[in-house]
Inverse folding.
């Protein structure tokens, strides 16, 4: 009944052996996100060394129980490459959840893993057939909200603003987090009014999201991946293709209604009158126009929904953003422009993994308990908490760094 | 000082000679719109025969003066083909406003015409140089609102709803027209809250408009014109390229949040995973996805703005729509969906000419008066009114049919 040891890989520190425990999945339209917990071999069960989150443990109204210290790890795949996902899970024996030493035994050792997103439905049969496991489906919005709440409350320096190239971390007051608008930009976009833990409503959304950027971008630039498209947009100049106010007004502002000559009047509007074909444009410029069009639109619709419900804070998550400075800047400027400075756009460091983290957390009642039993801990209510000392960010954000955290039994 | 006679052409009845009077222009980013008044030769000044709008004339608080009966004519050009516009004006001698028989005499007979839209600024020098006339610039929003108000109040069966392929004319109550949201879809989109004659505020807009449809459509399908692109969209199937909720959820609805399996989750989202290049898609399907994406987005943002100001009526104008059934249907469905049936999308028969009509009407104080003087009428306040008996619609709407109307001196 020993937990598995697997070679570290991907987001883990190279060379460090790790024990892989629990896994949850968020299979979206374009990308599948995995969150899994690895226990470091050297301090597997150590009540003495528990420290950073004693306060949180105590807040649960009990003395501190022994914990498992380890890391939450984040990994993503293109949903279309479902075989890679299956292979990864198989290679790490993640699907066995640390409770089985042998390879899958058909018919007997089958287990289930938490999964959310549409792919939890679409690929249920494939997981059953290829790995012999069933996907335990959690509602997508439930998971997004649970994930966002966990990250915002549990992780130091999770949220930040981004304006004029400057990021600034936001101190989250746990007693003043709600209500907020959560905007999750996946293939499509969901906008969720969050009023508390488990209290929320999906109030709006738009079909113009990350899948639109990627899909249109692929058709227009022949890029091979989302990241390549994003990379191109760094180099581009949208003014080559967008019709600006100044293009219509002969270089002048339309100041009466507050539109400067450089404001975009019509996205891709210059492509109508030129004699240029698609190939005659720099793909970088196309990528830039596309990114700006979509980011601006999401920012605007988000603001209008925040306004509608009197929400001052808008948190943007989802894999579209990827901590891309220009994307964040455009969204921030849009929210700032339309709200006349009233509303604030904020971003999440683990933006792409809200749903997966939420699915992971939904295991509290089931999986994590079993896990701790397996690790010879006392049974009871289990929760995952983050050792805040270890979670500050140095240098660039990349969104998929692992988080040092602990499993507690309270 | 006789008004010009020109051969009838374009929107006029073939073979009927017409006397061309007054002209106004709306030069947008993509299209230039002309409105001009032609007097029928046979009943040029005829107080006896004035009838249909006697009531309106009387409402101005005076006896009925003789009128000029004629038609308002509508014509559009691509803005980039500015030479065609100049040629048309020259051929009709419209720029001489019926007050000059001879060709332009440099330095002496120069006149001005009312113009709005960004092109009134951008092309001012060209008009001066090539036709010797100056453009008398009117504010774009002023003209849009004046045009919409005139058409809504003055023209029988101007506004209609469109749902499930059925158009239904809306009876406009002159005493209960305001407030309403005017959404003008040109190259870009302006959203204007209208509270009365000349009382309005541009409250929002989006850069994803007609120029985006045409520009992106050109790049993706190599279509040669806006109309060709629109035509293609009739034949297309957006489900080939759009990622539907059912595509993500394995064919099922996401009923918990009210999304059916056929709802679009991500516009162009299917283009990410396929191994298909742009050329492998039917241009018709691309055109359809694009039209649906843009129409739906405009409908959504319009609704959110109507909601914000408590407006129940949204009138859509601008040249993007072109009485295109699928466009109107998508906008209507979007407004209906997001407002849960609370708000109503309405369309205008002369949708593309709001700004030009507004510019034409702004001539009341100047041009029309001079016109009537030239036609040996009594000077005074002049207004243009529509003979309602003649303005009902038979068959398909095409938006640019001429309107029978009269010039009144009150």
């Amino acid at each position: 009944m020993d937990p598995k040891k697997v070679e570290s890989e991907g987001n883990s520190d190279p060379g460090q052996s790790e024990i892989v425990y629990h896994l949850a999945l968020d299979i979206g339209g374009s990308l599948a996100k995995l969150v899994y917990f690895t226990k470091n071999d050297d301090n597997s069960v150590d009540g003495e060394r528990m420290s950073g989150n004693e306060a949180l443990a105590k807040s649960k109204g009990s003395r501190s129980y022994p914990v498992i210290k380890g890391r939450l790890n984040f990994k993503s795949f293109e949903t279309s490459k479902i075989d890679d996902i299956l292979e990864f899970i198989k290679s790490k024996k993640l699907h066995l959840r640390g409770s089985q030493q042998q390879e899958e035994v058909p018919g007997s050792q089958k287990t289930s893993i938490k999964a959310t997103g549409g792919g939890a439905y679409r690929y249920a049969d494939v997981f059953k057939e290829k790995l012999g496991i069933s996907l335990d489906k959690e509602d997508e919005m439930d998971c997004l909200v649970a994930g966002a709440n966990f990250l915002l409350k549990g992780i130091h320096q999770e949220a930040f603003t981004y304006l004029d190239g400057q990021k600034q971390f936001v101190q989250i007051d746990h007693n003043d987090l709600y209500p907020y608008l959560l905007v999750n930009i996946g293939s499509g976009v969901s906008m969720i009014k969050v009023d508390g833990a488990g209290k929320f409503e999906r109030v709006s959304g738009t079909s113009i999201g990350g899948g639109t950027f990627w899909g249109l971008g692929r058709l227009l630039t022949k890029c091979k991946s989302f990241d390549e498209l994003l990379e191109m947009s760094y180099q581009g100049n949208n003014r080559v293709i967008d019709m600006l106010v100044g293009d219509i007004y002969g270089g002048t502002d339309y100041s009466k209604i507050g539109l400067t000559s450089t404001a975009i009047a019509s996205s891709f509007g210059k492509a109508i009158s030129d004699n240029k074909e698609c190939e005659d444009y720099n793909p970088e410029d196309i990528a830039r126009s596309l990114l700006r069009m979509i980011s601006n639109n999401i920012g605007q619709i988000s603001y209008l929904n925040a306004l509608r419900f009197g929400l001052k804070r808008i948190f943007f998550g989802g894999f579209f953003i990827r901590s891309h400075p220009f994307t964040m800047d455009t969204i921030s400027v849009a929210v700032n422009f339309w709200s006349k400075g009233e509303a604030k756009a904020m971003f999440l460091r683990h933006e792409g993994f809200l749903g997966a983290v939420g699915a992971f957390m939904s295991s509290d009642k089931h999986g994590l308990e079993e896990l701790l039993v397996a690790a010879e801990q006392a049974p009871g209510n289990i929760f995952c908490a983050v050792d805040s000392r270890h979670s500050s960010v140095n240098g660039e954000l990349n969104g998929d760094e692992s988080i040092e955290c602990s499993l507690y039994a309270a």
Q: What stands out?
A: Chain A touches chain B through 73 residues (CB under 8 Å). Residues 6 and 387 of chain A are 23 Å apart (CA to CA). The first helix of chain A runs from residue 54 to 59.
